[in-house]
Specification:
Rossmann fold; alpha/beta; nine-stranded mixed β-sheet; 9 helices; 2 domains; 375 residues; three-stranded antiparallel β-sheet; Arc Repressor Mutant, subunit A
Length: 375
């Protein structure tokens, strides 16, 4: 038969089946794989975040760090702001139902939520937040979990589901490609079923610069957040990767103790809430992010070590020492605490430069930069 000839059933069952398939693909209602012409591909304007530049509207989010680094305090604080619809550190938030699956530290989590209720919950507010404390095999239990969540939530659809932690919700090995592949498939089931952000709380390995275990988890992530405990006790979270977004955003907080009442022995029960810690190294001047503060220090050092006084120009203060943009950029490339290679450092430098200019901390003209303060 010519490949261009129409199929006609002549009594052969195989031909009849082939003809049926060919007829079905011409029925638009039955197409499983519709092709969209270039001219019809349109971008929608829907918001693509739950917390702008931190948590995407839908996707897998890996939030990782060493034990006791404060990652549970951070993620609890984040998702309670989503459940309340409150801005988070000046970032826009899309409100929605949150389900928090706690597979470890259940008692501690209840105390943390009570601390949030007492210290940060607005009067009369009731967050759309649900807690599930359980031992879980996410892959094997996924179907039942979906059924029971839907039944208990009624018509409500969660926008964020936290799984804390990966290790306590995985039966198998974090380093085994099949086990981790199945885990990612189950997490994707939750994401697809609710069109939600699934936030997986995870540990780092010996190398604290990456999540522990098989790389399939990192490969599937739409966002990756590293949480670290600084030497001064502050909790620092940095957006290491954001699909269709900029990396490098940083959240810094400190843990503030909250007294919750007395236990049966008459001793004080305490927990903590995470409060902002973007404080200045000096008591004066505008508030700056850590990366921008570091870029400013590097500019100060560059001017001190290699600065020159440019030829007289009406746009540059007379007699002031300046550095070129090339000098400052190179020093930031070497000195900014940013992971991810030269591209990430260039973006961090651009953000810091614009922030310092917007806040009038530095001046700029004709590729010269100077400090609007004594060097």
């Amino acid at each position: 038969m010519s490949p261009c000839r129409s199929l006609v059933w002549d009594g052969d069952p195989a031909m009849r089946g082939q003809a049926a398939v060919e007829r079905s693909v011409h029925s638009e209602a039955r197409r499983r794989f519709p092709l969209v012409p270039f001219a019809d591909i349109k971008m929608d304007g829907a918001r693509r975040y739950l917390v702008k530049n931190v948590i995407p509207r839908e996707g897998l989010v890996v939030l990782y760090g060493a034990p006791k680094c404060g990652k549970t305090f951070l993620v609890t604080d984040l998702v309670l702001h989503i459940a309340l619809g409150l801005p988070y550190r000046g970032r826009q938030v899309q409100q929605g139902v949150v389900v928090y699956i706690a597979c470890e530290g259940e008692r501690g989590l209840a105390a943390r939520i009570e601390a949030f209720r007492r210290r940060k919950l607005p009067a009369g507010a009731e967050p759309a937040f649900f807690l599930l404390t359980t031992r879980l095999d996410l892959f094997e239990d996924c179907d039942q979990l979906l059924v029971e969540m839907k039944a208990q939530l009624g018509g409500s659809i969660p926008v964020a589901i936290v799984i804390d932690t990966l290790n306590r919700s995985l039966r198998g090995s974090e380093s085994n490609d099949e086990d981790m592949g199945n885990y990612v498939k189950a997490a994707d089931r939750l994401r697809e079923e609710f069109a939600a952000a699934v936030i997986i709380v995870h540990h780092c390995g010996i190398d604290d610069r990456r999540p522990r275990g098989h790389t399939s988890l990192v490969g599937a992530a739409d966002a990756q957040i590293a949480v670290r405990r600084e030497r001064d006790g502050e909790v620092a979270a940095r957006i290491e990767y954001m699909k269709d977004g900029a990396a490098g955003e940083e959240i810094v907080g400190r843990l503030e103790v909250v007294e919750l009442g007395l236990d049966e022995d008459g001793e004080q029960i305490t927990s903590c809430v995470l409060v902002p810690a973007e404080v200045e190294e000096r008591s004066e001047g505008p508030k700056l992010s850590r990366a921008t503060r570091r870029a400013l220090d590097l500019l100060r050092d560059t001017i001190r070590e290699r600065g020159v006084v440019p030829l007289p120009d009406a746009q540059i203060p007379a007699g002031i020492s300046c550095a070129t943009i090339e000098q400052w950029r190179e020093d930031c490339r070497k000195g900014l605490p940013v992971e991810g290679g030269d591209s990430a450092k260039r973006k961090a430098f651009q953000r810091a430069r614009h922030e310092l200019l917007d806040k009038h901390v530095i001046g700029y003209w004709a590729d010269w930069f100077w400090l609007n303060e004594p060097a």
